[in-house]
Design goal:
This protein has about 280 residues and is an alpha+beta fold. The protein is built from nine helices and ten strands. The model has no long low-confidence stretch (mean pLDDT about 95).
Length: about 280
């Protein structure tokens, strides 16, 4: 394959650094690069250098705070990084099993609680994509999401009012009022590496200031496990509300009318109202 790849072949808005830019920032010539993941907002390439080092080079479009997050965060949870351009970061390539390889529910839950506990120890002043800590911030973001949802086709106004009433419940408000720290926001078992010296967590495009239990909900949902027996219903609902918020943002700013965002919104509404 050609070594200079300035634009993604399917998502042309994603413009990666060429080989010369990578070599200049990473300190050695590029000998191989291949796509390992892509979608309209991000493109990840495995890049191998002439001196044997390997990086995951991630080019991304807004909305994201990941470059700023890596610049400020100091934690063994995060791999070492280099900012290559304004839109591209290079992360040390991690050769370790993923949490997704763990099949035993009890073991996965134990790892999940440990990872979420370490995330909760991140500094509270790190850059975030969204802030739902405290009643005022929560109500503001809920209303923004519901106003966007109401503009979707065939949305039942009764469902919107039902979500508004759920979000205003005293038990939900107590949970967001108690939140002070930074959470990953959409933690999956494919983003957690089990290395010999501890966990590594990637994909910090859209961290949130909010309740830490939401990260464990996300991990279980993405593992196709019911979080209900393990976590409070309020944290589960907040996870789905955050997914609804992102679905509205994606439908408005990323790919209007994309079925994926509409399906996320529908799933979020159904889960919250069925609780």
């Amino acid at each position: 394959m050609p070594l200079t790849v300035p634009a993604h072949p399917v998502f042309p808005r994603l413009l990666a650094p060429d080989d010369a830019e990578l070599a200049d920032q990473l300190g050695a010539a590029v000998v191989h690069r291949e796509t390992v993941h892509s979608w309209p907002l991000s493109w990840v390439e495995r890049v191998r250098l002439a001196d044997g080092r390997t990086y995951a080079c991630k080019t991304q479009l807004p909305p994201t705070v990941e470059p700023e997050f890596y610049a400020r965060a100091r934690s063994p949870l995060l791999p070492a990084y280099v900012r290559v351009t304004a839109g591209t970061i290079a992360l040390d390539w991690i050769e370790a099993p993923l949490l997704a390889t763990v099949r035993d529910t009890g073991e996965l839950l134990a790892h999940g609680r440990a990872v979420v506990g370490e995330i909760a120890r991140l500094p509270a002043d790190l850059p975030t994509y969204l802030d739902i800590a405290g009643e005022a911030a929560w109500r503001r973001e809920v209303e923004w999401a519901l106003e966007g949802l109401a503009r979707f086709p065939r949305v039942d106004p009764g469902a919107v009012e039902g979500l508004r009433a759920w979000a205003a419940q005293p038990s939900v408000l107590r949970v967001v009022d108690a939140a002070t720290g930074v959470i990953h926001g959409d933690l999956t078992p494919h983003q957690v590496f089990l290395t010999p010296d501890g966990y590594r967590v990637i994909d910090w495009q859209r961290p949130v200031r909010g309740p830490s239990d939401v990260d464990l909900v996300a991990l279980l949902v993405h593992s196709r496990l019911d979080p209900g027996p393990h976590l409070p219903s309020e944290a589960i609902g907040i996870y789905w509300l955050l997914l609804l918020h992102w679905a509205v943002r994606g439908d408005r700013d990323v790919a209007p009318g994309l079925p994926l965002f509409r399906s996320w919104a529908k799933a979020a509404v159904n889960h919250i109202l069925a609780a």
